[in-house]
């Protein structure tokens, strides 16, 4: 359930997002755009960014859910369903922002000096905010860290690296990634509360 404290956090996140938009996004994008393509940092992030694709989480979690249900291992089935639904909700939710905002991708600024929003534009050039790969990576990482707290730090670091890769390869602005990280965290947290509240069955 969304609480008042969550609204305060949302207000703070929104404020930081605006500050990034005004004062950091273009400078950060330009820095990584001008980085040598053969730089090992860029190669590393260009490689791991693929881990932000939702099919890496949707397909295995669905298969595991069906497998555990068939074997009546219901707790594990619920965990798999939680990962699946986290990705579904995050994937749908991100488009509730992408479509109305219609934010221009960094490429338009870096190559054509165009920066800002093209409201309600759904062309791939105008769906930068928030980052879809980021919300997938962060929501999945947070969800997995809640299920497997013993491994939470490596999991969260991996998710953060995938999210940051979107900035390094100039697919998204810093604010796109920052806000998507917040959304992904909230989706994972709220769905965890829903699925694993006391007495909740699948």
- Mean of the pLDDT scores? 94
Number of beta-strand segments: 0
Largest sheet: none
How much strand? Answer: under 5%
**Cα radius of gyration in angstroms:** 18 Å
Ranges where pLDDT stays below 50 over 5 or more residues in a row are none
Amino-to-carboxy terminus distance: 18 Å
Number of helices: 9
- Compute the number of structural domains: 1
The helix content, as a percent range, equals: over 70%
Specify the structural class.
mainly alpha
- Based on CA inertia axes, which overall geometry fits? globular
Q: Could you give the order of the helices and strands?
A: HHHHHHHHH
Keywords: Membrane, Transmembrane, Transmembrane helix
Protein name: Phosphatase PAP2 family protein
Organism: Sulfurovum zhangzhouensis
Pfam families: PAP2
